[in-house]
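Progress report, Aim 2. The chain analyzed during this reporting quarter is listed below.
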Amino acid sequence: MSAPITHATVYFSGHVQGVGFRYTTLQVAKEFEVAGQVRNLTDGRVQVEAEGRAAEIEAFIEALGERMHGYIHKTEQVKQTRPAVFQGFEIR
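Predicted structure tokens for the chain:
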């Protein structure tokens, strides 16, 4: 069993669907040591799940927020420590 790592689930609200948000998230994720996924939710939000070292996740979410700041009106984040479940980063 792998060592526990930081896992963040982040919900972005605003004009975040249909603007390349998921593709941008995938590109930004490649700049950091994070694994996870991004997907559109039926309520209009985008959900990002990321896991890795806490500092990498913080930097990744901050960079994504800066890249897409014109579209994001609200960000909600839940963090926990758990074993890794993702390999790589993907759009769902």
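Residues 54-67 form the longest helix (14 residues). The chain has a mean pLDDT of 96. These observations will guide the mutagenesis work planned for the next reporting period.
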